[in-house]
UniProtKB/TrEMBL annotation:
Family matches, as InterPro entries: RNA_pol_sigma-70_dom, RNA_pol_sigma-B/F/G, RNA_pol_sigma70, RNA_pol_sigma70_r2, RNA_pol_sigma70_r3, RNA_pol_sigma70_r4, RNA_pol_sigma_r2, RNA_pol_sigma_r3/r4-like
Superkingdom: Bacteria
Protein name, UniProt field: RNA polymerase sigma factor SigF
Keywords: DNA-binding, Sigma factor, Transcription, Transcription regulation
Gene3D superfamilies cross-referenced by the UniProt entry: 1.20.120.1810, Winged helix-like DNA-binding domain superfamily/Winged helix DNA-binding domain
SUPFAM superfamilies assigned: Sigma2 domain of RNA polymerase sigma factors, Sigma3 and sigma4 domains of RNA polymerase sigma factors
Domain RNA polymerase sigma-70 intervals: 65-78
Length: 265
């Protein structure tokens, strides 16, 4: 074993991780040996965390914090992984790490610093606004919100402005005209780039593609890179067209499941 497990080559790290995961599963939790094997596994797989963290670069949070949160996800993956299921550890760990980082951004981050008093006021305004909208049949005005919550109108305005710090630019929720009668920002700006989702999906698929056997990767290459027909692929691989169809359906189903699992994390 290398002096520093985190410096091990990818192939060596994978082989050693497989061995240590089986060993960890057989050890009693709380023993010194269990703690040592677990710590070694964390160091060996920190590359997975750094790889996953790159997807969240440029979102206003220090990369060190993102990696720290991702490491929590890695630890959860190690503790929950069952080597007897026959699933590659990377296939299981990456969605777990990404899911932990996504929860961090969803639950704990604000685009700008907002005092706790205003955070709580924003929640009260959101709840009160929903209640008034149900009874009025329209969005409530600032005076109506102030009366409903028994606060000053200035506080309502302050809370509404503070709500803009929860996320950076919730433009897709705006429509029609703004409060000053001008066109809402969503009308003045371009729409989202549909290619961004494709890039994210491709990044999410990389670990799953790497975990496929050589035959399945070759099958996908022939179909979607060389754009061969199923009949041509069958001739190339020496199997029937029906077998090609079944193999493609199974492989694409596995990849689709990985994407859905990632999206639900």
């Amino acid at each position: 074993m290398a002096a520093d497990p985190s410096t091990a080559a990818p192939a060596d790290a994978k082989a050693l991780s497989d061995t240590l995961l089986r060993r960890l599963n057989a050890l009693e939790e709380g023993t010194p040996e269990h703690a040592y094997v677990r710590s070694t596994l964390i160091e060996l797989n920190l590359t997975l965390v750094r790889f996953s963290a790159q997807r969240f670069r440029g979102r206003g949070q220090p990369m060190e914090d993102i990696i720290q949160v991702g490491t929590v996800g890695l630890i959860k993956a190690i503790d929950r992984f069952d080597p007897e299921r026959g699933v590659e550890f990377t296939t299981y760990a990456v969605p777990t790490v990404v899911g932990e980082i996504k929860r961090y951004f969803r639950d704990t981050t604000w685009a700008v610093h907002v005092p706790r008093r205003l955070q709580e006021l924003r929640l009260a305004l959101a709840k009160g606004g929903d209640e008034l909208e149900q009874s009025l049949g329209r969005r409530p005005t600032v005076p109506e919100l102030a009366t409903h919550l028994e606060v000053d109108e200035e506080e309502v305005i302050e809370g509404l402005v503070a709500g803009n710090g929860r996320v950076a630019g919730p433009l897709d929720t705006l429509d029609g005209e703004d409060e000053c009668g001008g066109a809402a920002p969503v009308r003045r700006l371009g729409g989202p780039d549909p290619g961004l989702e494709k890039v994210e999906n491709l990044e999410s698929l990389k670990p799953a593609l790497a975990a496929l056997c050589e035959r399945d990767r070759t099958l996908l290459h022939l179909r979607f890179v060389e754009e061969l027909t199923q009949a041509d692929i069958g001739e190339r691989l020496g199997v029937s067209q029906m077998q090609v169809s079944r193999l493609l359906a199974r492989t694409l189903g596995e990849l689709r499941g990985e994407l859905l699992a990632d999206a639900g994390s």
